[in-house]
Description:
By secondary structure, the chain is an alpha+beta fold. The protein has one domain: Aminopeptidase (3-Layer(aba) Sandwich). It has six helices and seven strands, in the order βααβααβββαβαβ. Strands 2-3-4-5-6-1-7 form a seven-stranded mixed beta sheet.
Amino acid sequence: MADDPKYLLSLEEYPTMESFMQKFNGKKRYNLRRDQRIILSHNPQTVINRYKDLEALFKLSIKRFAKIDEDGSAFLVRERKETFRQIVKQANEYEIRTVTTEINGKTVGVDLVALYKGVYYALNGAYDIKHYPGLGNYTNFVLIQDAIDLGMKAVDFLEVSYGWKEDWFKPIPLFQFKGIQP
């Protein structure tokens, strides 16, 4: 049975940001670079591994999805927050990173990332796109560049497109195996 596809970026195929940008048509490249210029005009600061920002990720996600999704953010469920806290707390075989974007001293975006066996897993992120349109695109470039700088082989943006991933990456089909019912 078909499941949601996953979205993987091979850094062996695209070892630089410029090589990755070349995969887009001219109009898309222009729009992505415009988003970068707009966010850069606000002099954003990137903070790595400030783990307390996980709580800001929850708040940003809840605020972001309150008006666009009838179910709201997955972080409305207390157990989901606790699961992510445990991911950070129990890191052993994998390394956890937070990537925070601040503008004018205010946290406007947070991503939680796991590093495991050469793959950079973008587990979850949330941004204040109401006040900073293009921040999601900007942050994706920050994450990809971070993965390149760390020498990762790939960036796994996981499942669920949210309406943008198929524009950036080739979907990889996934399937669920359902056992035979007696």
